[in-house]
Please model this.
Amino acid sequence: MMALPDPELPVIGLGDLGVVGSVAPGADGVLEVEITPTYLGCPALAEITAAVRDVLTACGHPDGRVRQVLAPPWTTDRITPEGRRKLAAHGIAPPVTPAPDGPVPVGLGDVPCPHCGARATRPHSPFGPSRCQSVWWCTGCREPFPHVTAL
Model:
């Protein structure tokens, strides 16, 4: 289940993206999986829920439940280091790594190019391949690239 690909970012699993929360028996003994959407109104939520239910059924838990948890909200802090590496390896600039003792800095900061590593990049469009991404431009290798917006 943790390896299920995110429908909008298929290079990363739901576990590395931080969408899957707890997987544990509920009070009645039925296995429950908690998922937190990356944002309210996520168009992939129904597809993610169905895929998690399919995994529960395939693993012998046809009565398993999928609960959508909205609090605390998902933030890019939940993306694992491995998830950040996978994004970068596929040409998607991961969001800024959170400070160990503070929140994610929000703003147009230093976004390294996932293709050449140059830091001479700039925002190109606030609209990217999915709602959680923007498009940036590298002045070093002159390639555009998607960037996961920090939340």
